[in-house]
Amino acid sequence: MTNIGVLASGRGSNFQALLAAQNRGEFPGKLVVLISDKPDAGALSIARENGIKAVAILPKDFPSREAHETAVLKALEENSVELVCLAGYMRIVSGTLLNIFHGRMLNIHPALLPAYPGLHGQKQALTNGAKVSGATVHFVDEGCDTGPIIIQAAVPVEENDTEETLSARILKEEHRIYPMAVRLYCEGRLKVENRRVHILPPGQKKGEGK
Ligand code: GRF
What we know:
Elements: E1 2-7, H1 13-23, E2 29-36, H2 42-49, E3 53-56, H3 65-78, E4 83-86, H4 95-101, E5 105-109, H5 121-127, E6 132-139, E7 149-156, H6 163-186, E8 190-193, E9 196-199
Parallel strand pairs: 1-2, 1-4, 2-3, 4-5
Antiparallel strand pairs: 5-6, 6-7, 8-9
The chain binds 5-O-phosphono-beta-D-ribofuranosylamine (GRF).
5-O-phosphono-beta-D-ribofuranosylamine (GRF) binds next to helix 1, strand 5 and helix 6.
């Protein structure tokens, strides 16, 4: 079982999707802690209601970005977290966390990366007239939504779409592919070579065979 920590700033629907998938036994991992930088994040309530440790670590309580991240790192380590899932975490993760969790941190983004990174991926797709958009789960690196891509799902952009309707269509796919990516990670089936993530067949683990 892989111990998983989730970092979230908002309503927490992706966290909830991971929780539901865990409860259905869809990945060999256990959500052990939810950490938020916002005291009123919906994700914190979802964790509490489901008996998962919920920790608010607020930037305003720390003298610097680094000190805040060190506190987050400490909370992850105290809970023996092996994999970190960012799920609507609205902060750039820097060296303090990345050095320790490099290759062990995933993110979900509401666009087909490398298109439309950063904030408001859905709005960017609309304003650029894209006919197709979607969701991406990727490893986190030093850049903003630039890490190696694990899984993507595409959705059509409809003629009458608003940011809300497109976001809802994409969110459905987010909830479907994030647990799939976590499963592949927990099964040791993700092999990163340069920028490409190879998905190994079931039963084969990283470092085994060819
Ligand atoms: C999602 O659209 C995710 O792709 C983005 O932030 C949003 C978080 O939503 N990174 P939720 O808090 O998981 O509902």
